[in-house]
């Protein structure tokens, strides 16, 4: 049973939302944030990448940086760039990219659900990244950017959403990356109560993106619970900000690999060796994208090759072994290249599908990589299956687009 609640959002005035909101903190470097925020005092990067308020090269974990996040957040509120709503609401948040619109619901989810296993994850987290977000949440006393959750498709939630978005949106703007962002406010108490009840029927919510944000928010709740002798469980600090989307609304893109050397093989030797585990077909010089599960695309020597996994390597009964990221790791990256540590091996890089096959070709053609491997995207069903089984996805398995905009709505912890 998933526990969610409406909340008093802190958000920009309608005429400022495009100036205040920003990309998530973890999709760009300090240098990129500094460049994007140059000359823009209202940019949320001053809060969610607060190291840009200091000299170039400033350690983003310097205590001054977290203090700056707090100071900037208070400044934004003082200047009226962020204003707290007078009442509790749910917020419908829509993103349109390449002609497709996905509708999500901005809610506050209960941290206990993470600990109870109601909220399921499919990725491991790093303690240092959790520590960073925990310190940021504590400094601001707020979740500045939402985690990204998925829930099973639900007909009644679709109908509630359809009715809500038939009216005029509170926000409607296009960000620099060409994504259209819209938001509607749900104020009707009966509708909000019904949404809360619908979510109670979901046995699980699934973290699609934002594993570190979620883990950090839960740790903040735990610390405040310990520090409060009168803790009841309904205090605002028990909740954290998420954007929840029905699984059938979401687009998961491919997450591709480029390898820097051929592990002592020639291209011909590599292709011949791959025939032990795949049917290898030369597709020529035109771009070739995998068309289905268990099919891969290899770019080498200016040619694209289709690699079709042989039947003996497909184990559909196993939620991990059946994944293409697992098949490619075992039978290509490990067996042919000796790459076993996807997180740490410097001979491999990962390219999000949003950058297309063109980026893979460019990296190989300019000599930055010896070959590139394109994968068929993981499905939401596969993600749910892995999470339901208590397993963790192999590294670099999922890439979600479009990314959620931070600063559209913020959740404060009191």
Short overview:
The protein is 32% helix and 24% strand. The chain has 13 helices and 21 strands.
Overview of this protein structure:
The chain is of the alpha+beta class and 414 residues long. Helices cover 32% and strands 24% of the residues. The mean pLDDT is 95.
Secondary structure elements and their pairing?
Layout: E1 4-5, E2 10-11, H1 17-20, H2 30-37, H3 45-48, H4 63-78, E3 83-84, E4 90-97, E5 100-110, H5 112-116, E6 119-120, H6 127-140, E7 142-143, E8 147-151, H7 155-164, E9 171-174, E10 180-186, H8 189-200, E11 205-209, H9 211-227, E12 239-246, E13 252-253, E14 255-259, H10 267-274, E15 278-284, E16 295-300, E17 303-309, H11 324-337, E18 348-352, H12 356-365, E19 371-374, H13 380-388, E20 399-400, E21 411-412
Parallel strand pairs: 6-11, 8-12
Antiparallel strand pairs: 1-5, 2-3, 4-5, 4-10, 5-12, 7-21, 8-11, 9-10, 13-20, 14-18, 14-19, 15-17, 16-17, 16-19
Largest sheet: 9 strands, mixed
Structural class: alpha+beta
Mean pLDDT: 95
Rg value = 23 Å
Shape: globular
Low-confidence stretches: none
Total beta strand runs: 21
Beta-strand share of residues: 15-25%
How much helix, percentage-wise, in residues? 25-40%
- Distance linking N and C termini: 24 Å
Which descriptors apply to this entry?
single chain; 414 residues; alpha+beta; six-stranded antiparallel sheet; 13 helices
């Amino acid at each position: 049973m998933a526990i969610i609640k409406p909340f008093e959002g802190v958000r920009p005035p309608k005429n400022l939302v495009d100036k205040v909101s920003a990309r998530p903190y973890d999709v760009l470097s300090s240098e990129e944030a500094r460049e994007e925020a140059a000359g823009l005092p209202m940019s949320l990067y001053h809060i969610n990448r607060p190291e840009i308020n200091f000299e170039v090269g400033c350690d983003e974990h310097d205590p001054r940086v977290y203090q700056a996040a707090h100071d900037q957040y208070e400044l934004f509120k003082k200047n009226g760039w962020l204003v707290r709503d007078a009442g509790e609401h749910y917020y419908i948040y829509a993103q349109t990219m390449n002609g497709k619109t996905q509708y999500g619901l901005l809610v506050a989810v209960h941290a206990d659900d993470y600990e109870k296993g109601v909220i399921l994850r499919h990725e491991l987290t790093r303690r240092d990244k959790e520590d960073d977000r925990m310190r940021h949440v504590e400094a601001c006393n707020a979740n500045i950017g939402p985690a990204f959750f998925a829930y099973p498709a639900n007909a009644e939630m679709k109908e509630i959403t359809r009715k809500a978005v038939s009216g005029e949106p509170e926000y409607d703007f296009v960000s620099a990356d060409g994504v259209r962002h819209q938001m509607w406010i749900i104020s009707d108490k009966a509708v909000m109560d019904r949404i809360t009840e619908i979510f109670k029927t979901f046995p699980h919510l699934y973290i699609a993106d934002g594993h570190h944000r979620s883990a950090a928010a839960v740790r903040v709740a735990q610390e405040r619970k310990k520090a409060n002798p009168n803790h009841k469980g309904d205090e605002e600090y028990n909740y954290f900000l998420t954007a929840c989307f029905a699984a059938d609304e979401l687009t998961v893109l491919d997450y591709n690999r480029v390898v820097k050397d051929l592990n002592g093989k020639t291209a011909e030797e590599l292709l011949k060796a791959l025939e032990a585990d795949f049917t290898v077909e030369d597709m020529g010089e035109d771009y070739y994208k995998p068309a289905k599960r268990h099919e891969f695309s290899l770019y080498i020597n200016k040619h694209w090759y289709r690699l079709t996994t042989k039947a003996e390597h497909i184990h559909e009964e196993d939620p991990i072994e059946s994944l293409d990221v697992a098949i490619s790791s075992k039978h290509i990256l490990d067996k042919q290249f000796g790459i076993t540590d996807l997180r740490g091996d410097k001979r491999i890089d990962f390219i999000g599908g949003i950058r297309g096959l063109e980026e893979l070709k460019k990296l190989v053609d300019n000599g930055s990589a010896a070959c590139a491997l394109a994968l068929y995207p993981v499905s939401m069903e596969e993600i749910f299956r892995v999470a339901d089984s208590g397993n963790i996805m192999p590294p670099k398995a999922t890439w979600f687009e479009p990314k959620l905009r931070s600063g559209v709505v913020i959740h404060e912890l009191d």
